[in-house]
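Please fill in the sequence for the structure shown.

STRUCTURE ENCODING:
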């Protein structure tokens, strides 16, 4: 059976919204392998009981670790409830993570409404759905 890895990430002011969203979609979440940045992952595990592979906290490199997973072709989708109203010290990392989703055509939802649409799509976790993985050529 195919394994689907999703990343769940939320900035501090968005964490409770993410937990609420996860609980609304808990049956879908249970079908996925979940990775998360450190603090978000800890909260998800304690508040929902889901198993979570935790990376570093975002400001300490967690966003970049998830970016590396994308670059290796190992991420199915990203749910990133980022905070548009408070500056983050690691904003370049946040931008880099979102950029890599576009580079590698990885589905990404940045708010609860988009996340709702994504997980309720019949294509989500469907073995018939293979988003095009771009091929890049770089000459040195
Ligand atoms: O800062 C984050 C994403 O940019 C999230 O990090 P934490 O999950 O450790 O709070």
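FILLED IN BY: designer on duty
SEQUENCE:
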């Amino acid at each position: 059976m195919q394994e689907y890895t999703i990343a769940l990430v939320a900035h501090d002011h968005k964490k409770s919204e993410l937990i609420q969203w996860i609980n609304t979609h808990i049956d879908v979440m249970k079908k996925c392998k979940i990775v998360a940045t450190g603090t978000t992952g800890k909260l998800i595990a304690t508040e929902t009981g889901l198993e979570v592979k935790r990376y570093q906290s975002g400001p300490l490199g967690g966003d970049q670790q998830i970016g590396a997973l994308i670059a290796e072709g190992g991420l199915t989708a990203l749910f990133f409830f980022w905070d548009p109203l408070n500056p983050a010290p690691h904003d370049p990392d946040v931008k880099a993570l979102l950029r890599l989703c576009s580079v590698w055509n990885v589905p990404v939802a940045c708010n609860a409404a988009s996340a709702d649409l994504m997980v309720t799509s019949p294509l989500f976790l469907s073995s018939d759905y293979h988003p095009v993985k771009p091929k890049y050529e770089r000459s040195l």
